[in-house]
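step 4 of 6: structure.
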Amino acid sequence: MPGSGKREAGRVLLEVKGLRVAVAGNEILKGVDLTIRDGEVHAIMGPNGSGKSTLAQVLAGHPAYAVLAGTAKYEGKDLLDMKPEERARAGLFLAFQYPVEIRGITNSYFLRSALNALRRERGEPELDPIDFLQVLEAKLRSIGWDDSMMNRPVNEGFSGGEKKRNEILQLAVLEPRLAILDETDSGLDIDALRTVAEAVNQLRNPKRAFLIVTHYQRLLNYITPDVVHVLADGRIVRSGGPELAQELEAKGYDWLRDGVMVS
Amino acid sequence: MAVEHLVGAYHAWASNGASNAPAWLKTLRDSGISRFSELGFPNMKQEAWRFTSVAPIAESSFELAKPASALPSLDAIAPFLLDDETSHRLVFVNGFFAPSLSLVSSDGVRVESLAQAVLDRPAIVQAHLCKYALSQDRPFCALNTAFVREGAFVHVPAKAVVQKPIQLLFLAVPGKTQQIVMHPRNLVLIEREARASVVETYAALESDVYWTNSVTEVVVGDGARVDYHRVQRESARAYHVAATQTHQGRDSTIHLHTVAFGGALSRHDIGTVLAGPGGTLILNGLYLLAGRQHADHHTTIDHAADHCESHEYFNGVLDGHSRGVFTGRIIVRPGAQKTDSKQTNNNLLLSSDAHADSQPQLEIYADDVKCTHGSTVGPLDPRALFYMRSRGIKEDQARRLLTYGFAAEILGRMEVAPLRAQLDRIVRDRLAAV
């Protein structure tokens, strides 16, 4: 698999082989292979309906998707056998394309509950509201945001940009080892996109891998991936370096489909 | 059968214990009992009662409550109080004023028993009592009027500001020998540009069978604001029938909060009249039911003047075989232009045997208005469950948290912090058992 040479030697974090997935009886993923190593940033691009979001959701454990065949190993363990909460506790995080509104629960309370769930798993003491506030403020500072969203109910009445920022804030606080961003760029204007991308860049480190699902190349102007994959009709049809994203931007997706058909 | 029983009880009471009342009050009571005997108990063929049968009440025989043989201690009632956070407190036990448990100060604001107010200030009581909660087609209100004797009288004069909440606690201590009925009657007058906050609580120390039939009238003058909280924590075997009627003047504000936790069968009619232009009403309600509890909320928001806004939020959390009924009637009178009215009723079903009925009723007779309504009935949102689990929260905790949020959304609108904390604890305790 192409990628930057220095990371090639990294530990394999996620290994997906021959993954076939159906939702409501329709096969969406028709045999996906994907290997992500520690600290790598992978982008998955593809046209609408190619199965990008399905891949993101199934890796996070969404119950609506049925795995027909294949395997997914996360840190050597069978990911597909884990509950969504177990995956999260093992360090997997999904930034939702459509973050869900939760009435009556403040963002701050929700995030503390989630962080404490992870801390319990790691055998660390739970944080009380005051300790949590310190952790939160440090995180907010590190990505240059304020706490204006914290005392509002989770995602309720948030603008599209606020919802996406909130996902990235959760990512920052929960410190996953593998962060999946499901079309985090969709619906964002260029300023909001830049804000989100800058935060993601702040959160990149050798211990944290990213899988960035996107329809457009523009997010990748700000976040430079190590590997770009093209997903079409449920299969990865091309993988390459960042230049592949630019090629797609210039030519669209059709040429790839044709390529698949002739090959 | 029970109608005759109650009418008989009335006549015995009127000629004995209640015979020293002033003539105007006797007239009022007589009109109440005759209206009740004409109307009788409601039945499910009547539109306003199509989801709620009062047969368990009509078929029982309740005796008019007598003073408790011994008053509970202050410690015993502490769970229902707001610690040191109240300015005034009236405690009624079995419907009788208990001065030794109450906290009354004379600071220009009158907070006293209605019986006392009838003696001290008959003119103002006579001018307002039974002028807002009308008995015309409401048998329980008529019955309450027949037995009007005691309850709370609150009078906040013009421009007065009462910082801490005024608490009215109605405690049932019925004893084991007979089933009692209480008819508390409350009159709350908030004069022009005054501000106050009231907490009216119904509770019991034991899980007895009894019947509370209460009526509260709240009158809010021009430019005044009242935060009115009604907490129904009756015994799980009790019957609770109540009417709250508000009437508000120009540019006034009412935040009316109501929570129903208790009662085997409860029915709360909430009527509000926005009588002057520029009024604001928030009507914010929660019912949290389990077992075989049945709670029926029947709300009417009457936009009688222009440029008023009303925001109504009712959430129901229904477990076991419980049933929640919500009827939200909004009337926009001719000429009530620029009315802005929003209504939502969301019902969360925690069990497949729980049931909710939700019916909005909009009657709009003006053309330049904004009225929206929405209602939902269903289980927890699976998308929200997955969202929480994807953050590491276990499924059972995620369920509890989402359910809690449903209730917390309503409690969060209350501005009296110690009350909010008290109710929050009740909700958490109840959900721990889910």
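step 5 of 6: annotate
 - Confidence is low (pLDDT under 50) at residues 1-7 of chain A.
 - Chain A touches chain B at residues 60-63, 83-85, 87-89, 93-94, 96, 99-105, 110, 113-114, 117-118, 121, 153, 170, 174 (CB under 8 Å).
step 6 of 6: archive
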